[in-house]
Write a structure and sequence with these properties.
single chain, mainly beta, Porin, 3 helices, 7% helix
Amino acid sequence: MKKIYLVTCSLVMLFAGIGAKAQTDPHFSQYYAYPLYLNPGLTGVMDGDYRVTAIYRSQWGNISSPFSTPGVSADVALDNKLSLGINIMNQTAGNGGYNYLTGYASMAYNGVRFGKDGNQRISMGISLGLINRRFDQSKFQTGEQWNAATGFDPTMGTGEALAKTSASALDAGAGIMYYDATPDKKANVFVGFSAYHLTQPSDPFISGGYDKKLPIRYTAHGGVKLSLAENFSLTPNLLYMRQGAAEEKMLGAYAQMRVNEEADFLLGANYRIKDAISPYVGVYYKNFLLGLSYDVTTSDLSKVAGKANSFELSLTFSGRKGKAEAIPFVCPRL
């Protein structure tokens, strides 16, 4: 099983970054565009009655089998106090045919409101779902398949047999979000905290003395929307995420400029400390927001993998039931 362990360990390091020693979740540079993955407390926190979000991340496109991570979520505000959502994400990675699929249902209570006109708001959410991890053993390449004359021969046996190639487990998460929704204010603060994998499901593929439990993913995030002019705002934001021995620190900002009554233009960047810079450009048109970002690697990983060729594409649609006039308030993008 040593060779299988090495394959698994390599995947683990790719998920978490160099130096990590436990399996970690995929990360997104556009974390603010994928709210239900970031924090179940963001369920229903939107400028509208319903929202559908799709995101796609391609990581290390210059290798033969790059990481591919699509995700989709949807949430709806049932009333002023309760919201429901679903979130599905799937990651495929590496030559070992590794697949990591998660599906969650979330519920949030959005009814905590205080301050003038109830514009200081707190949303609390939980998520329950299923995790599935599996390998395609037919895609393994081991020493037993090496032919000195022709290289790897997939028709030869791997010499390895996994007792299990697929495993599923129940999972749970929780989160809380505070935001200042006061309209026409110069500065609107927002901050949140979430924890996923509260059940710490075991990973049957980890061996070699490593902890088999999937570590809890803790995330703290926040920022402030600064209204600098009638048609221009700047939003500095930051994120801290820790899962087992792996941690991620990200800070950045984006500017939002009103083009006309139906369209906004967004431009910004995030810096993942000691890892990458991620420029971002977005277009908001009517009820749609399209975003594109590209990771420029700044760590030593670029010496090994060359240009990262990692990019993300996100699309969000939000709408309202009927034609009721919207009540003005400031909705955080995080």
